[in-house]
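Changelog excerpt

This revision adds worked examples to the README so contributors can see how folded entries look when concatenated. The first example is reproduced verbatim below.
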Amino acid sequence: MGAKTKVAGWIVVGAVAGALTTMQLTATARNPSAALPLEELQQLAAVFGMVKSDYVEPVDEKKLITDAIGGMVAGLDPHSQYFDKKTFKEFREGTSGRFVGVGIEIGMEDGLVKVVSPIEGSPAFRAGVKSGDLITKIDDSFVKGLTMDQAVKKMRGEPNTKVVLTVFRKAESRSFPVTITREEIRVQSVRAKMIEPGYAWLRVSQFQDRTVEDFATKLADLYKQDPNLKGLVLDLRNDPGGLLEASVAISAAFLPKDVTVVSTNGQIAESKAVFKANPEFYSRRGSDPLKKLPEGLKSVPLIVLVNEGSASASEIVAGALQDHKRATVMGSQTFGKGSVQTVRQLSPDTALKITTARYYTPSGRSIQATGIVPDVWLDETAEGNVFAAIRTREADLEKHISSGQGPEVKDPAREKAREEALKKLEEANGKDKDKAPKPLPEFGSAEDFPLQQALNRLKGKTVLASKTQTERKPEDTKTN
C-alpha cells in the first residue's frame, strides 16, 4: 500500500483485540452492481413493520435499524462492528491516544483501582497522585464491585468538570480525597530507561498517533545517556495494537531499508498490499521521524518481549524482526490477531468496521489464530506461570476466522489447562486469600522476571527458559 491509498485513510489496529484496520473518511459502495437478495430484504422489511406495529409498546425506528445493522455485522466475526455515535467517539479516542480524564494509568488490586503511574503533567500528577495509590471511591461511588471499564468511564467526562477521588495510600496508612479537574490527556505509549550501564529497556504499550515520534525521542535520550549501547529490550507485552504505520516505523528503525515488514491480502484490490521499511509507508506528516536516530540502532543486539496480550501491531513488529533474524523474540505465544478490518464512515458520527483481509509476516506466515511463537519461551515469574493459561487469545473467540493456511487443529489440552487454572484461582481467592497469587510485578521493575532473562540473553548468561510452555495450536472453533 503506497501513498495513494494512504491519502484515502489511515491505518489503525484496534485497541482491545489489536484488529488491523483501515479508516476510510468517505463511504463508498464496493460493488453497487451486485444483485441484492430481494426476498430476504422483503422479509426484513416485513419484520420491521410487525415489530413497529405489534410490539407490546412503541419502539424507536432508528434504534430498530441500528440494532439490525449491529446484529448483522456482529454475526460475521469478533472484530467486525457497527459504531454508533458513542462507540465511534471511543474508537477514535483510542487510536488518537487522546481523551478527557484525570491522567492515570491504572490496574486492579483487591477489587480497587490501583494507580500504576500518573501521566506526567496530567491533572492527577499535579494533584499529587502517586504510583501504588488505591482509589476506593469515585465521587460518591465505591470502586469495589466495579469493573475496570466502569471505573474508567466514571473518571472520564467533559473538559473542566471536577471529579473527587478517594485515595488510600498504603505507605502512609491513610485515606484522603483528591479533587481533580478533568482535561484532555495524551496517553504516553512509550516508556524507556537505562536498566544498567550499556543496557536499555523500551516499552511500547500501544501504537498510537504520536508513538513513533515519542519512540524516536526516547531512543535518542537513551543514546545520549550511553552512546555505546550494548543491548536493547523492546517490550511489547500486553500491547494490543494501534496504528499500522507506527508498527511499520518501529520495525523499520531496526531493519535495513526497503525490506518487507508486513503484507495484507483479501478480496478487494486495496487489501492486497506490501508495507516496507521505508518512510513512504510510515511517515504521516511529510518528514521521516526516524532519520535522526543513531546508525548503531540497526545492529544493536535486540530482544523483543511478548506475551499472550501482545496483539496485531505488536505481532507485526515481533514477526518482522523475527523473520529477518534481527531480534530474538522471548516470552509466550502471542494473541494471534492477524485479520484486517476496514472502517468506513456512514455519517459524521457513525461507521462500519468490517474484516477485509489477513496480514502476513515477511516470510508469508499468517498470524491469524496462531500468533508469533517465541524463539525462547519464558514464564511470567521464577515460580512459573500464574495468569498465562487463563488469558483469552484469538483462537478462544467464537466465530474467529481461520489463518487461511490449512485446517485448524483441535487442542483439548488448551481448554483443560484454562479450566484448571481458573479453578485454582477461584479456590485461592475464595478460601485462602493469603495463598492467592500476587499480582505480577510492574513491567520494567527489578522484579520483572522476563526482563531479567532478556538481559541475561543479551549478556550471554544463562537464561531460565520455561520448561512447561509449548506451542498452542488454534482451536477448532467455527470459522468464516
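The second example, added in the same revision:
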Amino acid sequence: MPLAPYASDPARTRGRRHAQPAAPTRSDYQRDRDRIVHSTAFRRLVYKTQVFLNHEGDLYRTRLTHSLEVAQLGRSIARTLGLDEDLVEAIALAHDLGHTPFGHAGQDALNDALREHGGFEHNLQSLRVVDALEQRYPDFDGLNLTFETREGILKHCSPSNARKLEAQEPGGVARRFIEGTQPSLEAQLTNLADEIAYNAHDIDDGVRSGLLSVEQMRAVPLFARFHDEALAEHPRLAGRRLLFEAIRRMLSQQMYDVMDATRARLERHAPQSADDVRRAAPLVCFSDAMRDESRQLKSFLMRHLYRHPQVMETTGRAKRVVHELVAAYLEQPAEMPADFAQRADLPRAVADYIAGMTDRFALREHARLTGAPAFEGLS
C-alpha cells in the first residue's frame, strides 16, 4: 500500500545527527529498526520485568515480548492507515530500551534515589541509550537513528529535561514539548498501540498468575462484552481458550476502533504532510466510547493487579534493591566497571549502569554488595 501524504516518508527524513550515506537496499527507517534489533540494550529486554519478575514464571511477558507485541499491533494499524510500518516498528522496538530492571518499581526507585541529581525518566533514558550509550560504531556513540525514530522514542519528557535537550540540539526532538506540538502519526500510533498491548497482556498474565480471575474481569465492561460474545458463539468454550478468545476479540475491536476514529480525525483536519500533522491536534485516537472503556480497564488493573498485595510486596523489595544499589555505587564507584566508575558525572553513570541491568543481574549485584539476597531462590 502506498504511503499517505501525511505519513513519514523515509525519502524525506530529517536525517541523522551524524551524516551517513544511504543504505543500498533498505530505507532509513528499516535501517533504524535493524540497528535497534542488533543492539545490546534490545537483547537485555528479555530479562526485564513487565509486571511479574523474570524469575516468577517462564510465560509472563517481559519488556522484549511486550515490545514485539506493540510492533505487531502498530504495524497492522499503520498498514491500513497508509503510514510507514517500518518507522512504527522501529519506535515500538526501541520505546522501552531505557527501562530499568523491575519495571515501573525500578524506575520509580531510581528516580527517587537520584532526585537531587536530576532524577530519572525512562523515556529520556531510552533516547540516551540510542544516542549515546550503545557503542557499536567507530565514528560516533549511539545508534545514530533518524530524527523520526528518536522523536517517537521520546514520547514523554519533563519541561526541565526538554529545555536541556533543546539547548544541546536546537530544533531537535525535544522542541515539541516546549512548543506544544505533536510527533508524527507513526509515533502517535505506537504510543496508543503500547497502551492496547499492555492492557491486553496484563489481563492474560494476571489470570495466569492467579491474582485475577475471569469472574473478576467480567466486572470490566470492555472485557465482559467480548467474553460473553465468545461464549455465546462457542457455548462449550472454557478455561484459557475462552480467555484467549475474549482477549483476541477485544484487541481486534480496539484496533478497528483506532482505525475508524483516526480516519475521522484525518478527514476533519486534512493534513497534507507530516509537518501538518505536527501542527495539528493529536490525530491517532480511540473513539470517545472506547477511550472511556479503556480507562475503566486501566483503572481496574491498577486496583486489582498492579496494587495487589503480592505484587506490592515484590515491588517493595525491588525498590529496596535499587535504592541500595545506588547507595553502594555512589559510595564505592570502583564496584562498577571502569568506564562507568571513571566518568566525571558519577550520579548519571550510576543511573546508566543500573538502568541497563536485567532483573537477575541487579539481584546478583545487590546480593554481592550487601550480602543479603532480596528474593530467595533466585540465582
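Reviewer comment on example two: The mean pLDDT is 93. DSSP finds 19 helices and no strands in the chain.
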